[in-house]
Amino acid sequence: MLGIVHLLQDSALGRWSYWEWRPRQLAAVAELLWQSRGTVTHPRKRILPNGKLELLVNLGPPIRLAEGAGADRFVGGTLSGLQCGPLVIEMVGGHTHVLGVRLTPAGAYALLGRPMGELGGLTVGLDDLVGRAAAELAERCDAAPSVEERFRIAARWITRQILGSPRVEPAIAYAAAQLERSAGAVPIARLRDELGLSKTRLAARFRDQIGVTPKRYARILRFHRLVPRLHAREGDLAALALAAGYYDQAHMTAEFRALSGLTPGEFLASARYAQTIAVAEPG
Fold first, then answer.
1. Whether residue 132 sits in one domain with residue 14
2. Residue 73 in 3-state DSSP?
3. Which of 18, 94, 95, 229 would you call most buried, defined as having the most Cβ atoms within 10 angstroms of its Cβ?
4. Number of alpha carbons in the 13 Å side-chain half-sphere of residue 155
5. Which residue has the higher pLDDT, 2 or 229?
6. pLDDT per residue over 121-169, tens digit each?
7. CA 119 – CA 266 distance, rounded (Å)
8. Phi-psi region at 277: left, alpha or beta (left = phi > 0; alpha = psi -120 to 50)
């Protein structure tokens, strides 16, 4: 057994099964592999930036991109680059059956072997990125007899795809790790001094290998740190703003709206999915 976590969700948002697996051997590449299958009462879902890239294999009805840039339908395999704003998808007919791989930026760079800045904020057909290997993954996952076997197939596919691929250079990996550990709080000027890189050079190399500039990556990470705290209502808005590294509540509200399309109050008033803290929206 792989140590798969399985949860059955049955609420006003719908009824579905959710599975996830965190493969230690792929930890630097993929945070987790997950699958969701069932029905939802709200066909639209607002997905918030989290500092990761999402590879999806759609095994059910078509999924439509209702808000965001790129491919308008998720058919077969798709990959969403680092989000700098909300992504709204619509599950046609309210039914869903999806396999997902949550990739780290470094993992996506190794998997695709191309400038990651090209994918920032975009959803792209996986076949446009890796060719015939995308169809192979979708076909094998569709034919798999169990969730466990589907996860094994996806893990083996990732392992093959990253063999011999480029890796994020040490200086950029260090800068990204420092930002991730501090949830975007470490001063970027300090990172430039430590690495001996100019502002322009660090920004260009970081965008090429991670997908966005260090400043924007820090904004995404700060926001991602805030969202679960806000979801859990860990204090009033002013206290949450300071704890998450914002200057004040007004700064937090402006950033929250820019990255999610919602105010903190609108987020708190919304129906939300527990696992991803995505927002359920009426069709």
1. yes
2. strand
3. 18
4. 20
5. 229
6. 889 999 989 999 999 999 999 999 999 999 999 999 999 999 988 899 9
7. 29
8. left
